[in-house]
Amino acid sequence: MSDITSLPAEFLFHINATLNPPIVIPNGPNGTRVIVRVTGGTVKGPKLNGTIEDLGADWLTMRADGTAQLDVRIVINTDDGAAIHMSYKGIMAPDADGKPRIVTAPLFETGDERYAWLTQMQGIAIGAAGQNVVDYDIYRLV
């Protein structure tokens, strides 16, 4: 095994997603469930541009240690007419300043040949949540 201290990555696009206020289901057997509907947004970058459909959601679980485990599915409609399903799991935890930092591992599905390369890669996303919004920078490990 090699000692990896950094990973080569290529920036693909930025997501700015708008969110409904959360629905909270407290004290479940796995923690508090928080369901956040994704109501739209934009995708902009060197490899992909488009909008986010109003039909996705994050089914996150608040854990006993104060972190949240994310489980998100959205649909991106590209400016050139492709539909792309993006799903990701990850962790939201406070950064050194106490602000929520999100790290996820997105995967993609599409039948559009122009974007087939997305289905053959592992993505990494770094994000932050705001008031009824979340922002991510999406990268491809190379």
Keywords:
Porin; mainly beta; 142 residues; 10-stranded antiparallel beta sheet; globular
Determine the structural class based on helices, strands and strand pairing: mainly beta
Total beta strand runs: 10
Instruction: Give the helix tally.
Output: 0
Quick check: average pLDDT? 94
CATH class: Mainly Beta
Task: Kindly report how far apart the N and C termini lie.
Answer: 18 Å
Question: Into how many domains do the coordinates divide?
Answer: 1
Order of helices and strands: EEEEEEEEEE
Shape call: globular
Strand portion, in percent? over 45%
> Which fold name is given in CATH as the topology?
Porin
What do these coordinates show?
The protein is mostly beta strands and 142 residues long. Helix content is 0%, strand content 64%. It has strands at residues 9-19, 23-28, 31-44, 50-52, 56-62, 68-78, 83-94, 100-109, 123-130, 133-141. Strands 1, 2, 3, 4, 5, 6, 7, 8, 9 and 10 form a 10-stranded antiparallel sheet that branches.
Q: What is the topological layout?
A:
Elements (H helix, E strand, L loop, with lengths): L8 E11 L3 E6 L2 E14 L5 E3 L3 E7 L5 E11 L4 E12 L5 E10 L13 E8 L2 E9 L1
Antiparallel strand pairs: 1-3, 1-10, 2-3, 3-4, 3-5, 4-6, 5-6, 6-7, 7-8, 8-9, 9-10
